[in-house]
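Action item from last meeting closed. Structure (470 res):
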């Protein structure tokens, strides 16, 4: 036993020196464990102390009962030719546990599938992901995840997750997200990637989720990629403290996401009166509906209560927390820069695009030929707070049949609104009462909206913004 262990170590060291010369580790069997497996190759690669490449030579699917882990901190490349790594267990299929740069080509990841709010995965505290990169607390530079020709499906939790957040899965989402992070930035680069049926086994699990905290920003690039049937957001980028979010999405689709908190199923648990307002002193807090309990997932209900200074209730409101196609929350110093070219953002249970920026910095959005349709709330929502502008160019885009507005540009605090819309179509959004485009400039600053050669049949609503139509 001791002897074979020594031999194994010697073999690993030998292979390690080869890897430094870029000789790959070959996967020669589809077995779960043992020599020649993907699992063994990842362990060997981690021992090299250098950048490594793993090439899968087998053709059949690789079935695993426990998650695969790469513990190295040096870059790793995994090259497949369309095989699938699959599991029947609720485990994270591939984890890079020490923040390594990870490049994967031609490989699919499939969880058990069949998850929903009525078939949850998280009752044991575990909900498996597809690909998970955990950034080290002291990491610097840019952590890179590059995927091409990769599919992730059937996992209960996030399909793809990069976490630079000390609280791991308790990091929380949106502008209220907590947690500390490393100085590092995060880059996610997706080419021909499909995330389908991820995040349906627990609350707030996204197709792609990036949690970036402390110094450093997020770069997100996707081309020819699809995010569909995800329980929470198709893609959610959460950037906190200093740093920008820089997005390019080309011909990428965000379709039918956000339905884990199934409104049809949960509506019956809502209070009879789900929102109300009161005069001061009229209503004490004990007399309004309390937090909802006993539903398939009580985390799905948002309950907001505003109190007067005397402690009486000013207003309360309940909502079911459905999610978006593409959700970005940039907070603290830094801006949100996004370019969308082509692609469809359709059938999502909340907004299609939901972009929020706060702290210093603005929103700079370019949309060319992208279509948003059939989303439950706004097609393209852009909301900017504090110092900073909202600047947007929209060309040849479409936003129709959404439950909210077609396009929303909201700016608060210091800063201006400058929006140019050309060759764009909106129609049948909300009640069609000036719901095609809304532009709002509050507080200090100026606002301009120019609409040229466009068909905005459901009208334009401006506030603090000069409108010019040609
Ligand atoms: Ca960071
Ligand atoms: Ca940051
Ligand atoms: Ca900011
Ligand atoms: Ca502002």
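Sequence:
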């Amino acid at each position: 036993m001791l002897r074979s262990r020594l031999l194994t170590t010697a073999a690993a060291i030998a292979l390690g020196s080869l890897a430094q010369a870029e000789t790959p580790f070959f996967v020669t069997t589809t077995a779960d464990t043992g020599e020649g497996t993907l699992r063994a190759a990842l362990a060997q690669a981690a021992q090299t102390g250098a950048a490594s490449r793993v090439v899968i030579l087998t053709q059949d699917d690789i079935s695993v009962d426990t998650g695969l882990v790469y513990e190295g901190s040096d870059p790793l490349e995994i090259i497949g030719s369309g095989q699938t790594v699959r599991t029947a267990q609720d485990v994270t299929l591939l984890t890079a546990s020490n923040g390594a740069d990870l490049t994967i080509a031609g490989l699919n990841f499939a969880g058990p599938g069949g998850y929903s709010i009525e078939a949850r995965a998280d009752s044991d505290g575990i909900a498996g992901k597809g690909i998970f990169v955990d950034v080290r607390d002291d990491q610097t530079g840019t952590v890179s995840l590059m995927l091409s020709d990769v599919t992730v499906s059937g996992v209960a939790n996030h399909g793809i997750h990069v976490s630079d957040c000390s609280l791991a899965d308790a990091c929380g989402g949106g502008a209220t997200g907590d947690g500390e992070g490393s100085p590092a930035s995060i880059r996610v680069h997706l080419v021909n990637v499909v995330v389908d049926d991820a995040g349906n086994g627990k609350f707030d699990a996204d197709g792609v989720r990036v949690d970036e905290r402390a110094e450093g920003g997020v770069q997100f690039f996707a081309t020819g990629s699809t995010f569909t049937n995800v329980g929470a957001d198709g893609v959610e980028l959460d950037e906190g403290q200093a740093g920008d979010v820089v997005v390019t999405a080309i011909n990428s689709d965000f379709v039918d996401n956000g339905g884990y908190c199934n409104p049809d199923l949960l509506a019956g648990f809502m209070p009879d009166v789900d929102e109300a307002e009161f005069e001061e002193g009229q209503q004490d807090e004990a007399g309004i509906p309390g937090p909802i309990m006993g539903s398939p997932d009580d985390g799905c209900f948002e309950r907001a209560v505003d109190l007067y200074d005397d402690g009486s209730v000013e207003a309360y409101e309940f909502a079911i927390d459905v999610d978006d196609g593409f959700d970005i929350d940039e907070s603290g110093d830094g801006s949100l820069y996004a370019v969308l070219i082509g692609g469809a953002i359709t059938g999502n249970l909340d907004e299609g695009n939901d972009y929020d920026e706060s702290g210093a910095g603005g929103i700079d959005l370019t949309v060319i030929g992208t279509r948003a349709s059939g989303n439950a709330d706004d097609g393209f929502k852009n909301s900017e707070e504090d110092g900073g502008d909202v600047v947007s160019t929209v060309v040849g885009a479409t936003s129709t049949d959404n439950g909210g507005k077609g396009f929303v540009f909201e700016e608060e605090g210091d800063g201006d609104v400058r929006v140019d819309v050309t060759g764009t179509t909106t129609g049948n959004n909300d009640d069609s009462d000036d719901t095609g485009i809304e532009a709002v400039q509050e507080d200090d600053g100026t606002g301009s909206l120019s609409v040229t050669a466009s068909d905005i049949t459901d009208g334009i609503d401006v506030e603090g913004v000069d409108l010019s139509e040609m």
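Note appended to the action item: The CA atoms of residues 89 and 216 lie 35 Å apart.
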